[in-house]
UniProtKB/TrEMBL annotation:
Binds 1 lipoyl cofactor covalently. Residues 22-104 form the Lipoyl-binding domain. This is Glycine cleavage system H protein. One of its GO terms (cellular component) is glycine cleavage complex.
Length: 124
């Protein structure tokens, strides 16, 4: 089980786990629940540059289509192909096997990231 208090969160319902200068990014359990059954995931290609706040992918569910926003500036170094092949991983294990991309951070983390308590307040 991932330590949810060790993660950073965005107001767009993404989580970030930083390891050195590489951030693993996924959507939260709250977002996965609101989306419903995820049936398709479109992620940026490895090597792509992403800019914080810009759309970098798409998550489709049986209920709706949601945009994936880059939570930070950097370069995509890895994409979770398992999620592309089996989008239900996003629902089944959003903080584990359902991660989406790994991004090499360019500069500092955005100042507006939330800790777990602040994220829980946001979604209450």
């Amino acid at each position: 089980m991932t330590d949810l208090t060790a993660l950073s969160y965005t107001s767009e319902h993404e989580w970030i786990a930083l390891d050195g200068d590489v951030a693993t990014v996924g959507i939260t359990d709250f977002a996965a629940e609101k989306l419903g059954d995820v049936v398709f995931v479109d992620l940026p290609a490895a090597g792509s540059a992403v800019t914080a706040g810009d759309v970098c992918g798409e998550i489709e569910s049986t209920k709706s289509v949601g945009e994936l926003y880059a939570p930070l500036d950097g370069t995509v170094v890895e994409v979770n192909d398992a999620v592309v092949d089996d989008p239900s991983l996003v629902n089944a294990d959003p903080f584990g096997d359902g991660w989406l991309v790994k991004i090499r951070l360019d500069g500092d983390l955005p100042a507006d990231l939330l800790d777990r308590a602040a994220y829980e307040d946001l979604t209450a």
